[in-house]
Design goal:
Layout lengths: L11 E4 L10 E4 L6 E2 L14 E7 L8 H11 E12 L26 H6 L11 E9 L8 H10 L4 E10 L5 H15 L3 H14 L3 H13 L3 H14 L4 H13 L3 H12 L3 H7 L4
Parallel strand pairs: 1-2, 1-4, 2-3, 4-5
Antiparallel strand pairs: 5-7, 6-7
Helix pairs in contact: 4-5, 5-6, 6-7, 6-8, 7-8, 8-9, 9-10
Length: 289
Amino acid sequence: MKKRSNEPTGVRLDIACGKNKKDGFTGVDIWNGADIVCNLEKFPWPFEDGSVDEIFCSHYIEHTPDLISFANELYRIMKVGATAEIIAPYYSSIRAWQDPTHLRAISEATFLYFSKEWRAMNKLDHYPIAVDFDAECHYIIDPQWRDKEDKELQFAIRHYINVVSDIHVILTKRKPVNDKVYDLQKQAAAYWDDGDFERALALCRELIEIDDNLDALIMIGEYELKKENFDTAITTFLHAVQLDGKSFEGHAGVVRALVASGRPEDAQRHIDTFLQHDADAASLLKVFL
């Protein structure tokens, strides 16, 4: 029978599927009922480099004793642009702590370490992490909190327990970063941290000449904001969010620069526009108003 055009294609794996395999996916687990029987704690897994289009993994990463090797394997087997959907108990939920087989709690910050640029910026590129993912984080809210006003909910998420049950993350494998670009980013970040802004900015401009670079644009925008060159800062931050519409740093820069230039109404409009795409992140931008 010929497949309908809207049916998903490619290799789609449900990693650690257990007995609840996701429809349309090939189940991978250590138990004998899985489509592919595999001990996920032994590396490498039986998949070729860059061969997988989509991964689903629910309630497993809190169990694995080696999250770094797990992430490295995900990255190795995924194609560039492929996605991995990860669900895990949120760190502030009792669900993260009640199971004695859980080895760690998971938060948004966990996935910062899965970005090569972030590791370089924070001088953590000596970690044995070989991945470079874009991470989009969402929450699965406890039913008692789902009808709360957004401001109240966002405060509760950050200050109360058991508001978020699970974190729901989409990891997208980025295109490999050119080694020269990576080295320039690392050096620019080092100069910036040392307060040598002129050298940092010179390297940022070199990065942009090679190719539009998000981190370089953010640093240039921050520098122009410090110098109170508000129009240039706004233009630079807008360039950053055009490059990556999910960049919280870029959107925060736009809002902060607009407010500093005496345009709070424009800042509010920018937040309202972003709200349509990422309500959680947009609500955090309100602190800059």
